[in-house]
Design brief:
This protein has 311 residues and is of the alpha/beta class. The chain folds into two domains: 168 residues, 3-Layer(aba) Sandwich (Rossmann fold); 63 residues, 2-Layer Sandwich (Alpha-Beta Plaits), CATH 3.30.70. It is built from eleven helices and 15 strands. The strands form three sheets. It has a six-stranded mixed sheet, sandwiched between helices. Strands 1, 2, 3, 5 and 6 form a five-stranded antiparallel sheet that branches. A four-stranded antiparallel sheet has the order 13-14-12-15, with helices on both faces. A hairpin with a 6-residue loop joins β1 and β2. α3 crosses α4. The two termini are 42 Å apart. It binds adenosine-5'-triphosphate. The site of adenosine-5'-triphosphate has 12 residues, from β2 and α1.
Length: 311
Amino acid sequence: MTGDFAIETYGLEKIYRSRWSAREIRAVSSVSLRVPAGVKYGLLGANGAGKTTFVKLLLTAVHPTQGEAKLFGRDAREPEARRPVGYLPENHRFPTYLTGYGMLDFYGALSGVEARERKRRIPEFLELVGLKDWAEVRIKKYSKGMLQRLGLAQALLHRPKLLILDEPTDGVDPVGRREIRRVLDGLKEQGVTVFINSHLLSEVESFCEYVAILRSGRVAVEGKISNLLAGRGYRVTASDVPAAALADIRQSGASILPADEGVTIQVTTREEANVVIDKIRAAGGEIESVAASTSSLEDLFMKTAHPDKAA
Ligand code: ATP
């Protein structure tokens, strides 16, 4: 059922066109993703891979050139579809003359939280993010880590079902990161879906259950991290594999990554490796190598986001 997904996109595409030149930038290209409700999902990619544009498309801050996005089964263009979403943008600029309390009061009102409810919730959320003693201090005095935690309280104040965070710990020191992590961990019990854009691999690896890696606007790899990084496994690298055979192999649950010579197919067991090899041969493909593997998200990221720099 479509409502089981917090986010669904179908062939989402964004081309930025300049008014002054013929240059086009394809920031997001044919992205079809499904984020199950209640999970923690990380979107990784190098600078400029299209992560922020993807989030802006979900929130309709920019309009797609093609494709569609749904939030909890509803067309993202409907304001009601976006109501259960909390958002912490990258490089936000909250008005610095406001106090922490004033900022939450202002944005809480914009999110439709009634005055009486704000009065009750704001101290609760300031406490949650460890800023209780800073409530009456103007936010121009806040450190980067404190601003991010205040931003998190802002994104949570209307009790969203989906929290979208764009580089939440960028520029935050390790203590501040741990604080943010503590708040996010607490959301799991409440069933909140958390979608994080990040280029911090360790953060995504330790926090998220699912990951998608964007490369030049396209999804290069997507899936459950535990499957993608199955501790021990086998990598079959092959060339000249017809697309139909790759689709068949992907259907059987194997992960497929781009490789210099063609593709690398990651499977968990020796039997699966043998089946993959048989399928490739039967389809006329060439086996380049077969290797036992252990991998980290960093390996996966380098291979998919920066194949030219991978070892
Ligand atoms: P970063 O990690 O640096 O934030 P990102 O993965 O979030 O990068 P985007 O900010 O979505 O990537 O940018 C994707 C591409 O689209 C880049 O080439 C960027 O220069 C371009 N781009 C983004 N916004 C605009 C815009 N408003 N007009 C034109 N091009 C844009």
